[in-house]
Amino acid sequence: MYRLSFKIGLLFFMLFNLASEDCNAQIEINKRTWLSGYARSILAFDNFTNTAFSTDSLTAKKLNSGHTLVDLEANIQPNKNLFIHGSVRIRNDHGGFWNSGVTFDVRNLYIRGVAADAVRFQLGDVQYKLTPYTFFNDHQEFYDYMPEIFREQTELIHQDLFFDNENTWRQQGFTTDFGFSFKNILEEINVNAFALRLRPSFAAPAERLFMGGHIDLIQSKNFSGQINYVNTFDWEGTRDPGAALDVYNNPVLTAGAILSFDINNFLLKLETEAGRSFERKVFTADSLETRDFFVDASLSGEIKNWKVKLNFRDVGPDFRSAAAQTRRISFNESNRPNAFSEVAVNDSVGSLVPRSLSIFDMMREGQLYNSALQQNLMITRPEYNNIDPFGSATPNRRMISANFIRIRGDKNWDVNLGVGIGNEIRGQGTTEKRAFTEINLDADYLLEIEDSKLLNSINFNLKGWIQNTTRSGSNEFEQVDLQSTMASAGVRFNLPSGFNLNTAYMLFNSKGNETITERSALGEIRNYTPVTIDHNEQLIGIGLGYDFTTRNTIDFYYNRAVNTLSTEEDYQIDNFTLLFKMKF
Amino acid sequence: MKKIIAFFVISSILFSACEREQLDFEGPALQDLFGEFGILEDLSVSQSEVDFGTGEMVHFEASFTKSLDWVIEITGQNSGAVKQITGFSNAIDATNSSWPGDATILPIFGQEPCSVVLSFTAEEETQNASLSITSVKSNVGYLISDFEDGFNQEWNQFAQSGANMSFGIRDEFQSGQGNFYFDMGGEVPWDWLIGLLDIPASAYGETTFPLTGSADDLYFNVMIYKPDSIINELILFQFREDEDLDGFHSSQSEDMYSIEISNQNLEPGWQLISIPYSETLSLVNGAPAPANGNSIHDPDKIHMISVLMLADPNSGYSRTAMDYMIFTTNGPLRP
């Protein structure tokens, strides 16, 4: 116990010293070994107000929580061709006295290197992706359209779960890449390959592996092609013979091309990807095999700071690609927030009912997120995203979209306005197909203020989207009409001496009706639940921050969530958060 | 440029070959789950008279506006036999309602008029029809006895001299099949045994019953009747094998397998008991015990079948009845 406390104390001493200096530098032990890391401390206080049931005496109204953690990363380079990285996370939940709340986790461990000065490899923990149809980690709902103050808080979850802006999935296994250069016909061939272990066979089911690769064929700066292949499969023979049969196999093969021309500074680019999937599931006595394909083509034209992009995608109803369609959040019934997990309802006995997951919970509760590739399509919420809940690889969609983009460049503003229309390829329970329309906007403006001692600059951002889903039909039970709107506005005042003041307002509203599909263990639709949606969420955020350096900040946030998810779930949460974080 | 064009041409050809499964829609039809119910075609019977004895089958026809759970219940007007056919569909036709004359609830159908009622789990609507059975379904198997031809003099019967004894072939109530059944009842305060019936293969002119040698494929079937008020009956069927084919069963050196049927296994009324011969057990005082012979189920060497009617001597009067004892191969009897 004494030794543990001493080590933690030593770590905090080191961090405190680092915080007081410019900590861009890592801690060099010698030329081949150095330490780096990440640390944060957070304190949060919540107050819950049950708007629907003002005399509620059952729900706990106050909550506070917090923790301090340090990711201590050891970096070792034994020689110029090898690199070893190990990371240990020490976390102490506030209130966990005498080490009772302390956890130690090996967070990251890999070896990478270059063999024969030509073949790069990595073994251990890897971050990997291919294309949006083969291996891709799409952002969760709302993240791309959140004002900065809410994104900052969400990024704590991303840090913990290894979600990055490159859309990689964190997995364990082996990766390699190498390339060839040619004088004729092709300029280069680059090859990436991987073998990942998704499910060990310690448990009864068979070991699940995920293997694949990508070949890039670069003919010239104007033309390149690519071939992608991934396969998720169970290694038969590793299954406990007494275990229930649960076999999965999902190969996906795609090919693509990029064709680009620069005509007097007008950059014309055609990007395509198309491919096929096969999926076989055997679950106890039942089995299912499906095959389907997709086509995705984009044509863009760019001149100076302006760009127009047209996209067409057709993703078959039975197209399945586990590593591209796995979501970060499942909206199944059991995935509930930890904070105020139950709310009292104003019935005759004042029952406690589970609280539904909201945008505010998605912003700050890491346990809601999934980090493992899933074989079945996960449960979605139509009001949050009904058009592409599984990213570009969302099955049963034929969509056309156009984006009008103003690239910031050396100017102070950028805009991305998108519109899309489309429909299902195959109806669900009826020959009538859902039709979709969407509009989205992301605009930023930087106002630089010169000759002011009070203010350096102000960032404005305006984001939002509208999704509309309709399905006609001669019967009322076929008809669907759902409109969801999300809008946010954020202003950040950049003050002198590293201070900043950040404010934002975000509104989400959804109204209408939909039919929720329920799928079997094999993934087949087996039932529908008609739902009427009248859903409103508002988030208000105010933050005061101080940047010691770009890698070392302290922020104080006030958040208010005003949610009307149903007649029973009408409440308000006020939250105060103090967050210190640093990278070194 | 030629290579680029070639690439797109080849790609187009490759992907133009992709085909999707052509389905009207995914999943169950919304109409079936949420649509309004209506009958498009009334219930009808494919033939008003049916001769099951020659292998004829009858089927029913009807159609509805949505798929739903339906039940067709056919009731014998004389026997009270019941056949239930169930399904989930929006149409009833030969593919889902063919009836070869078997019964779901015993007794077996006789040569009799039947009423037919179509009902729905989720709807109150019912439809009615009728048909007439001109000859009953014949069952394939080795019939030990349906007790219609009286007591076989080669059988051995023993009954205690207890109170209210009734041990023999009777027709006092509806039999499981035909008109007669074997009644076993009485009160014996000094012994578990109320009575027994030995049925030797010799009663059929054989040294062993002419059955298949595959114990997994052979099923022993018997109809058992449990009176409403009786809760203490215990019926024991014993199969004595003559492994050395010397014309005798030796309890010291040859196998005897048993089926024990107690009150807990029975519902009031007639019911069919079917069990593969391979699942019969060697029992001593009701508990599994090692067999005394080769420990191999040899149904082609069954020398004698014994039926013992037992009851706890302290439990008072007990009674049961049996009918239509038959061996079938490759599956249980479909009466």
Descriptive key words:
heterodimer, A: 584 residues, mainly beta, 22-stranded antiparallel β-barrel, two-stranded antiparallel ribbon, 26 strands, 58% strand, globular, disordered N terminus, B: 335 residues, Immunoglobulin-like, Jelly Rolls, 2 domains, 6-stranded mixed β-sheet, 6-stranded antiparallel β-sheet, 44% strand
- Counting helices, strands and paired strands, the structural category of chain A is mainly beta
Helix content of chain A: under 10%
Q: N-to-C terminal Cα separation of chain B, in Å?
A: 78 Å
The largest sheet of chain B, given as strand count, sense and whether it forms a barrel, is:
6 strands, mixed
Beta-strand percentage range of chain A:
over 45%
The helix count of chain B comes to 3
In terms of quaternary structure, what is this? heterodimer
Shape descriptor of chain A: globular
Structural class of chain B: mainly beta
Computed CA radius of gyration of chain A, to the nearest angstrom: 26 Å
CATH superfamily of the largest domain in chain B: Galactose-binding lectin
CATH topology grouping of the largest domain in chain B:
Jelly Rolls
Instruction: Report the top-level CATH class of the largest domain in chain B.
Output: Mainly Beta
Question: How many β-strands of chain B, per DSSP?
Answer: 20
DSSP helical segment count of chain A:
4
Describe this structure in words.
The complex is a heterodimer of chains A (584) and B (335). Chain A has four helices and 26 strands. Chain A has 584 residues and is mainly β. Helices cover 7% and strands 44% of the residues of chain B. Chain B has helices at residues 2-16, 30-34, 94-97; strands spanning 25-26, 39-45, 49-51, 60-76, 82-92, 113-120, 126-135, 142-145, 156-159, 163-170, 181-187, 193-200, 218-226, 233-241, 256-262, 269-276, 283-284, 287-288, 302-311, 318-329. In chain B, strands 2, 3, 4, 5, 6 and 7 form a six-stranded mixed sheet that branches. In chain B, 33% of the residues are buried. Chain A binds chain B through residues 185, 219, 223, 225, 255, 257, 259, 272, 274, 276, 290-293, 295, 316-318, 396, 425-431, 475, 477-478, 515, 517, 524-528, 530, and chain B through 3-4, 7-8, 11, 14-15, 18, 20-21, 23-31, 33-35. Strand 19 of chain A pairs parallel with strand 1 of chain B.
